[in-house]
Amino acid sequence: MEVTPINYNLKSELEKESILNSYKIFFKTCQFDMQILIQSNKEDLSHHISKIKKNILKKENKFLKELSENYIQYISNLNNNKKSSSKKFYIIIKNYPINKKEKNIEIIIQELNEKYLKIKECLSRCGNKVNVIDEKQEILKIFFSFLNTKKHFNKNYSYKEE
To answer: How many CA atoms lie within 13 A of 157 on its CB side?
Structure first.
């Protein structure tokens, strides 16, 4: 599942305390194995910069033009210093069989769905959005990007088997 986080830094002290307590409950409630993966990607801001440059040409106010040019300089510096990145958060849950015998696939799916709903409920209380990723190609793309460098991706970001 993919988790879209909140901006914790923009919250008040009381909200931050409430969020931390919700996370404590989350970790105490979810008594099963899970893995949290964080993926950072450098953002390409060139499209954003070109849109601002086009808007500068339309502006007649000198102050707004100067402000826009300063903003372009600021985000260009961020981009050049590799400080502009986005993060994606994923939670992977695993279902272990209780006994050594094979389980029915429907039971496994039901157990995974229960775990998903528990995680979704707890993280929603913290202010996060949780989305299930159920397409095999999307899951492969995520795992591949964690295990390999981007040089293995083609333009469509699909994986190549080697």
So the answer is: 8
